[in-house]
């Protein structure tokens, strides 16, 4: 009954770690095996959470409108992002080994993720506008989760496009650019609003201080998506000779267009990555300052730092590859090792407090109505307008 969407943050952090290990610029014998083991763990965690989530709303259907009308609905964005990490690893690990069937699986799952991401990106902000009373002091970085989901879907589409036939790859790349446009601008606006909230009402409570890392996510993932999509476009140009996003076959013009796109994409990615670095240090300092002054409780929100750090590392990996920069490769490896240490600490702690002690399975939306599922009449989601 107490499985809420925020649990999929575990799959996000676990999934991006497997991706980073697989793509690390400094490989050694066995690293792909370690990545594969973490990938397998992520599949198990994702499937278990999905089954329990379906059972929750099948057995107690009134919990769905209750959850949608509560701020916990922001975490619905974690579901498609967790799925995206699985899709990327299918492309990286399974497609080279097992071929077309896994290409098809990744392609179908990506479209499912795209649909859920778009619904989340549009639907959750609308619910906030129409069904919830939100004050400035109640704005947290979690407000970014619905919009970041489309950015992650865009970067996943860039990965999927690398294994698709040319015609399908072109469509996938175009959709990915649209998804990036849906997520990045609104994320920047929300980050400005969040900055305003921090200045006026200061840092979040210790229990939620890890949420300050979420602001890194849009920056790291956008930088990665821009680089990866640019690389995909150049890959298509070399195969087809078509000018990007047109049906014009002119190899010289297409090659020049590809060079121009790459020339613009790298500085743009660096610019956005730098913005992410700023938020990274803000988050680290905020966490350290809070830890020095107060006790930070062990809870599920600690997973909020994993995926954002992973996105910064992932974009640094791609920058290192595109720029042939040893410095960026080293930075990406340092961030990856930081994430690995955090994951090695968090994962067993999560297992202990969730499976053994059963103390992390809490539902804020359910607790606020007495701990028992209400009737549909009591929730009345449709008529509960705030305007």
List its salient traits:
single chain, 387 residues, 13 helices, Glycosyltransferase
Ordered list of secondary-structure elements with their pairings:
Blueprint lengths: L8 H15 L7 H29 L3 H6 L9 H21 L1 H32 L13 H17 L4 H36 L14 H25 L10 H43 L12 H18 L2 H31 L7 H4 L8 H4 L8
Helix pairs in contact: 1-2, 1-4, 1-10, 1-11, 2-4, 4-5, 4-6, 5-6, 6-7, 6-8, 7-8, 8-9, 8-10, 9-10, 10-11
Description:
This is Sulfite efflux pump SSU1. Its main location: membrane. The chain has 387 residues and is mainly alpha-helical. It has a single domain, classed as Alpha/alpha barrel (Glycosyltransferase). Helix content is 73%, strand content 0%. The protein is built from 13 helices and no strands. Helix 5 packs antiparallel against helix 6. The longest helix has 43 residues. It starts with 8 loop residues before the first helix and ends in an 8-residue tail after the last helix.
* Reported CATH architecture: Alpha/alpha barrel
Order of helices and strands: HHHHHHHHHHHHH
Distance separating the two termini: 31 Å
Rounded to the nearest angstrom, the radius of gyration is: 21 Å
Shape label: globular
- Secondary structure class reads mainly alpha
In CATH, the topology is named Glycosyltransferase
Biggest sheet statistics: none
State the total count of DSSP E strands. Answer: 0
Task: Indicate how many domains the architecture comprises.
Answer: 1
Looking at CATH, the homologous superfamily is: Voltage-dependent anion channel
Organism: Wallemia ichthyophaga
Transmembrane segments: 7-26, 32-60, 72-95, 107-127, 139-161, 173-196, 270-288, 300-319, 331-353
Pfam family, one: SLAC1
Main location: membrane
